[in-house]
Amino acid sequence: MYFDKIIFLYALYVAFAYSILAFGATYFREVADREKTLDIDIGETLIYTINASSYVVSIIFLLFFIIFAFLSLLQKSPSVITYVIPLAIFVNTLQILIRSSFQKTAICVNGIQLRYMLIGGINRLKYHSLTNIQIEPFFVWYKVILFCEHVKSGHCYINREQLDILMNQINNYPSCTITHKTKA
């Protein structure tokens, strides 16, 4: 293994500039999402849930970082780009972690607020407007698909404790039918 300190410092400078742009874009997306908040009052938040897919994406990016970092150390005469690629992947991993911390689903007293990592905006659904909910097991989580007027209005991935809280709130609205699907 060979490590060139001078080239690595140049790569750190490039990665720093890239991180400023990446984190700025992440923060801009969060501010833009907050500006588009709806005036639907869904009550006090009971619990926040982080989307399960953000964990998977973060782990995949972290694995890519480890692979490329190891490959960059195997180069006999590395260039700046050899060190920049793993650093940029690491910056993207941090960016995804920050974005996923912003994009929490909120289970509230009168409704649910859905936020997705790759889709901008906030989707707020009142429980009384829901007509159907489908619950499907998804690894250790549950995929909850929400329908308003029999049209799919959103989905989220939650754990058992969060599902119980959601079901307690929805049980107050008899117009909403709950369908449990099992894996075939």
Describe the structure.
There is one protein chain. This protein has 184 residues and is an alpha+beta fold. It is 47% helix and 26% strand. It has four helices and eight strands; from the N terminus they run H-E-H-H-E-E-E-E-E-E-H-E. It has helices at residues 5-35, 52-73, 80-102, 160-170, and strands at residues 45-50, 104-108, 111-114, 123-126, 130-138, 141-148, 151-158, 177-180. The chain has a four-stranded antiparallel sheet with strand order 1-2-3-4. Helix 1 packs parallel to helix 3 and helix 2 (52-73) packs antiparallel against helix 3 (80-102). It is elongated, with a radius of gyration of 21 Å. The mean pLDDT is 87.
Characteristic terms for this protein:
single chain, about 180 residues, alpha+beta, 4-stranded antiparallel beta sheet, 8 strands, about 25% strand
Q: What's the average pLDDT?
A: 87
Give the overall silhouette.
elongated
Order of helices and strands: HEHHEEEEEEHE
Helix content: 40-55%
Structural class: alpha+beta
Biggest sheet strand order reads: 1-2-3-4
Number of helices: 4
Separation of the first and last Cα atoms: 49 Å
Number of strands: 8
Strand content: 25-35%
> Which spans of ≥5 residues are poorly predicted at pLDDT below 50?
none
Most strands sheet: 4 strands, antiparallel
Radius of gyration, Cα only, in angstroms? 21 Å
